[in-house]
Design brief:
The chain has 218 residues and is an all-alpha fold.
């Protein structure tokens, strides 16, 4: 846990702990454990979003605030199910329902306030990420799947130029992700082509443009 969204979601979930532990409904218990899955709270992390590091880990949400709102909606439905399947004694249950209703209002108000306050910041971070220009060196931090996408858009001759004196790390990332035909052509051309510094820069810039175009599609 680290930010307000994660803490709010986690604390609200654990208000149910005693009630759920005394419940013998398998569906309730199964969903209780699913709601504790760390991925839910990871998606609420604001650090990866503000850092523009969205391509390093699959995330179904467009922002941490969307993840928070979705989680709290699911949690509200879960609370209703828990109360129906495993009610407390009447007086305690009435208090719990009142607390739940109050909590729901507080959650909605808190979420609305946080989303409104963060909208400008999130939009700016998104625009920065979307309009960011990537360089050839960005390949070092890319997944194999992304590299294969880039490899399809760049001809083998440009790879030969770009990888000239690029070092083992970049070469080791790219060559295994070429198709078999492209890899054979690469081995042939690297011994045939005369590579100039201008060719290297031009090809690396072209690949950087392809990387930027790929991430702008997201």
């Amino acid at each position: 846990m680290g930010n307000d969204l994660q803490n709010e979601a986690f604390n609200n979930l654990y208000t149910l702990e005693d009630q759920v532990k005394n419940c013998h409904d398998l569906g309730i218990l199964s969903d209780w454990y699913k709601l504790q899955n760390s991925d839910h709270f990871y998606y609420m992390c604001t650090k990866w979003f503000s850092d523009g590091d969205v391509h390093k880990y699959f995330n179904p949400y467009s922002s941490p605030y969307d993840a928070f709102i979705n989680y709290m909606n699911v949690l509200s439905d879960f609370i209703i199910r828990v109360n129906k399947k495993c009610p407390l004694d009447k007086s305690d249950n009435e208090k719990f329902i009142e607390k739940t209703e109050e909590l729901g209002r507080e959650i909605q108000a808190a979420a609305a306030k946080k989303v409104k306050a963060a909208t400008a910041k999130v939009k700016a971070a998104y625009e920065t990420q979307k309009n960011k220009s990537y360089s050839f060196e960005e390949i070092k931090s890319m997944s194999n799947a992304k590299i294969r996408q880039i490899a399809k858009e760049v001809d083998v001759e440009n790879w030969v130029y770009a990888l000239k004196d690029a070092g083992d790390e970049l070469t080791g990332k790219i060559i295994p992700n070429l198709t078999k035909n492209a890899a054979r052509e690469y081995d042939k051309l690297k011994d045939e082509l005369k590579v100039r510094k201008a060719d290297i820069k031009k090809s690396r810039d072209k690949i950087g443009e392809e990387i930027s175009r790929l991430f702008r599609k997201k």
